[in-house]
Design goal:
By secondary structure, this protein is an all-alpha fold. 58% of the residues lie in helices and 0% in strands. The chain has helices at residues 16-23, 33-50, 60-72, 90-109, 113-125, 129-141, 147-151, 156-173, 179-190, 195-203.
């Protein structure tokens, strides 16, 4: 990305450290427009050079509209709801999701097929079909053993929810340090009615710092 950003028609050079800080959430302030448009241009250029589909990347005009909306967005009040009904604040859950996805994007960019496959699962369950198609295409190209079956599945949401639940189980079995990631995958599956994922979220009812809460009373809402 740094190499491609040095082209004369790209408005701003992209230092690797700056891009890394933004994508991993270390830098919370909104990037300036020259950096954003340069990033979008470089992503399209890399897709073109690599023969990858660029439809999911969005146009410069679309990104400018998003950037303007973010710049003018008023400060949000501290959230009072919860991510999974069991005590995890919404902003903390968002940080967990951002960190998980950013790490997968970084690994997929380095050629890891499993990370591309997981990104396809996440985007399917998030309702982001264009992004899901992009990452499943990458997983197929990288010859992930499950990618072809995923791409051709007639019930992709159910398929992805089962996989997401399985990932949650695997992370939960790794111990307390991985429970945040387990809850992330369970939450994706539970959002689409996976009963076992819903139950695991109930069991893992936790807030930041690992404090346990009693199960919620008088609520039949699904976590998610």
């Amino acid at each position: 990305m740094h190499r491609l950003s040095r082209a004369p028609d790209v408005p701003k050079e992209l230092p690797a450290s700056t891009v890394s800080d933004i994508l991993t959430g270390k830098r919370e302030r909104l990037p300036d427009w020259k950096l954003v448009v340069s990033f979008v241009m470089v992503c399209h250029r890399y897709a073109g050079e690599s023969g990858l589909p660029g439809d999911a990347l969005g146009t410069v005009e679309q990104w400018q509209a998003r950037w303007r909306a973010a710049r003018n967005e008023p400060a949000r009040p501290h959230p009072t709801g919860s991510y999974d009904l069991y005590g995890t604040p919404a902003d903390e859950a968002e940080r967990r999701a951002t960190r998980t996805v950013a790490r997968l994007v970084r690994l997929a960019g380095d050629g890891d097929a499993e990370s591309a496959y997981r990104l396809a699962i996440i985007h399917v369950l998030a309702g982001e079909s264009a992004e899901a198609r992009y990452w499943i295409h990458i997983a197929v190209q990288k010859r992930h053993p499950g990618a072809e079956a995923f791409a051709g599945n007639r019930h992709p949401i159910e398929f992805a929810a089962n996989l997401s639940f399985a990932y949650g189980q695997a992370y939960e079995q790794e111990g307390h340090a991985k429970r945040d990631i387990a809850r992330f995958y369970y939450g994706l599956a539970a959002r689409h009615g996976h009963p076992h994922a819903t139950e695991r979220l109930r069991v893992l009812r936790a807030v930041p710092f690992g404090k346990l809460l009693p199960a919620p009373v008088g609520s039949d809402r699904r976590p998610g």
